Fold this protein.
Amino acid sequence: MRKATVQKLHLAHMEIEKTKMRARETVFWPGINKKIEDLVKSCETCLEYTKKQTKELMISSEIPNHPFQIVGTDLFHWNNQDFIMVVDYYSRYWEIESLHNIQFQTVIKKLKMIFSRLGIPQIVRSDNGTQFTSSEFQKFSKEWEFKHITRSPQYQQSNGTAERHVQIAKNMLNKAKRSNEDLYIALLEVKNTPVDGLASPAQLISGRRLRSTLPTSLSLLQVDPVDVNKFKKNRKKVQNLQKKYYDKNLKTLENVSDGDCVRIHDGNKWQPGKIVESKQQRSFNVKTLNGNIVRRNRRHLLKTKEGVDWMSIYLTMKACEIISDFKFSTDPNMKDLWIRQFPQENLVPLNKTAV
């Protein structure tokens, strides 16, 4: 009787607090709030259509110890032309090169050109584009002795420095084109403009300002290394301020680990999955119902309390070529859940093979 009543209270699939409010107007017994919470948190329909999760608290990047220790790279398209960008995490110095195609051979060649001018970084961050996940790129990283780190798909923020500078570059390109200004002079001025109120990218990466069309005294063009400790202290202050405003009203999501049953956001709905491997911070490999392994950021994983491991049930039955009435006798709701979850499968009695 109580179970049926709680199910009626949740008939409209409202969230926990609204379901409790409805209950207060109609029924009460000790422990009803807990029953409502358990039902809503394990409701297959609500889990599938729940809203996207909030952003998590910012994790500030560690400030590198020297220029070109860590770089980010990204491809972008502008004015019918493809480009590759490389940005230094230490100095915010960036370069762009045009590409005649986006094949891995071309991308690797352009990176080699940039690295030959500025040095080989210790760490290169990128997205999961085929150019960067190819075996040839892995060979390149091994031969040139740098560590290659990719971000979680569908989560651009994890390669945020490169993504942000792509937008800066596009904005600069648009303005240069609109005003009919020399693009390369504009690039030069960007490299000479101070960041974090201390020094310019050119000063931070080479210890000197670059001569431009603006009048500059000879003394300012001399090599004058930046005080590294002062620079890092100032950068940390800026990071802390950014984190303070970014983290406002945000929260940390519940921890997940290998073996946890989760829901994975596919762009529209939350589908069942199971964590098979923890990758980098907040990044996980997840096995989906079709057996594929996908990588997702924690924000795109919903930890559930369904109590039903859809993954194990589905894969076991597919492997045995049997679709049984698993647990239907002990839980009458299981049949309806199964039909909604796997509409393509035929239900047949236990120990009989599906036709």
